[in-house]
Amino acid sequence: MKVFIDGQHGTTGLMLESRLSGRADVELLQPDFDKRKIFEAKRPLLEAADVVFLCLPDDAARESVAATPANTLIIDASTAHRTAPGWTYGLPELSPAHREAVAKSRRIAVNGCHACGFISLVYPLVSGGFLPASAQLSCTSLTGYSGGGIALIDAHEKSRTPGDKYHSPRPYGLTLAHKHLPEMRAISGLDAPPIFYPVVGDMFQGMLVSVPIWSSQFAKPMTAQDVHAALAAHYADANFVRVMPFDHDAATDGGFLDATACNGTNRLEIFVFGNGEQIILVARLDNLGKGASGAAIQCMNIACGLDENIGL
Fold this sequence. Notes:
Blueprint: E1 2-6, H1 11-20, E2 27-29, H2 39-48, E3 51-54, H3 58-66, E4 73-76, E5 88-89, H4 96-104, E6 107-109, H5 113-127, E7 138-143, H6 149-157, E8 170-171, H7 181-188, E9 195-200, E10 207-214, H8 224-234, E11 241-243, H9 248-251, E12 268-275, E13 278-285, H10 289-303
Parallel strand pairs: 1-2, 1-3, 3-4, 4-6, 5-6, 7-9, 11-12
Antiparallel strand pairs: 7-10, 8-9, 10-13, 12-13
Helix pairs in contact: 1-10, 5-7
């Protein structure tokens, strides 16, 4: 099949190219490098491809969608279509209905990296009736700096002086209007978005997304063990989502969680910790894997009727 990565020289595009270039079933369509940002130069590739990946700013993604035939499979890694009518949200593990929608869709919006972790933790609890949609939640997400794109990558890579500001974890999104919030609310089924506190760390990739919940917030009080059992049952048949054992010592590295342990994979690991009435849910993933390029390839595989594990 012919595949065009529109925006292939950004972080997600380069990861997609790396993962797809060795596949015998994929022919990558390549634009002239010096014309890659000229719309009319890439239009023939949009029209010729069987699959188009969009790794673009939102407005550019919408422009490319308008120029792509209706029967072409588009997988959009931008924010433009994650809650848009007519688009399928690309997180098939959420339910059989989500997987079926990905399999049948020609328009798939890949999840945001922070949103992927949050939704994976919260959706099963809301959809299962354990957590009311009216629950008011907060979320903290520690991410590698590759999620900030080329400019932030350059700033970190060029700044290796001890004590430099880029060596410190740096919270951002402090206007409480992060671009992932609409999908975090809509896809998880909540009435209101969480209070979201993202933090970029001095690591290239990797992510820990955490959600604290009081036992009393559930429709009926639940212990941490109860929540763990509910999540484990929900993801029992998932290839890429694994609920880790409910054992603090076995699940941690001497009491610590390594944010980079899923790097280079399409895995998402879920942890449940708790003491009495306080519970913390944590999702660990590669922000460039299940949070971006890995999720995009998984969705392509499913939509094309292939084994979802191919290339992952």
